[in-house]
């Protein structure tokens, strides 16, 4: 259990650096307006339907590291690769509205946001 907690703590380091790297790749979308209601609902349903949910971008090295942390713990997260979806930017706007950040990765465990690129984690 201590090793697992240490591994999860390593996400803090990984995602802190992500705030400088994996920001929105699309400047055409603005998070200042209210996010699409369907996208907000998609995020909420995804988070509530999976033990571990990660909103990610496939090319982001910090996202890959976060996913690998769970793999090393023999946990299989549900991953939403925003850059591989036509509605990825809209979903990213919804994440911004929900968690206050537009960066990736954004990680949820048991329906609880544990952190993202800002490096702030709330342990359960």
Biggest sheet record: 4 strands, mixed
**CATH superfamily assignment?**
Glutaredoxin
Q: Could you say what the CATH architecture is?
A: 3-Layer(aba) Sandwich
Q: Strand order within the widest sheet? A: 2-1-3-4
Total number of beta strands: 4
The CATH topology, please?
Answer: Glutaredoxin
> Compute the gyration radius: what is it?
14 Å
Query: Structural class, judged by helices and strands?
Result: alpha+beta
Percent in strands? 5-15%
Low-pLDDT ranges: 15-21, 23-32, 120-124
From the N-terminal CA to the C-terminal CA, the straight-line distance is 14 Å
The domain tally reads 1
Mean pLDDT across the residues is 80
Top-tier CATH class: Alpha Beta
Q: What's the tally of helices?
A: 4
- 3D shape: globular
Order of helices and strands: HHEHEHEE
Report the helical percentage.
40-55%
GO molecular function: glutathione disulfide oxidoreductase activity
Organism: Castanea mollissima
Function: Has a glutathione-disulfide oxidoreductase activity in the presence of NADPH and glutathione reductase. Reduces low molecular weight disulfides and proteins.
Pfam family, one: Glutaredoxin
């Amino acid at each position: 259990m201590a090793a697992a907690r240490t591994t999860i703590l390593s996400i803090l380091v990984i995602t802190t650096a992500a705030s400088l790297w994996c920001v929105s790749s699309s400047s055409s979308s603005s998070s200042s307006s209210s996010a699409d209601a369907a996208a907000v609902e998609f995020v909420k349903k995804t988070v509530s339907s999976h033990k571990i949910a990660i909103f990610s971008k496939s090319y982001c090295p910090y996202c890959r590291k976060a996913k690998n942390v769970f793999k090393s713990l023999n946990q299989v997260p549900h991953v939403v690769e925003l850059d591989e979806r036509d509605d990825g930017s809209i979903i990213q706007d919804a994440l911004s509205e929900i968690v206050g950040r537009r960066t990736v990765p954004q990680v949820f465990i048991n329906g609880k946001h544990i952190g993202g690129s800002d490096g702030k984690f709330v342990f359960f």
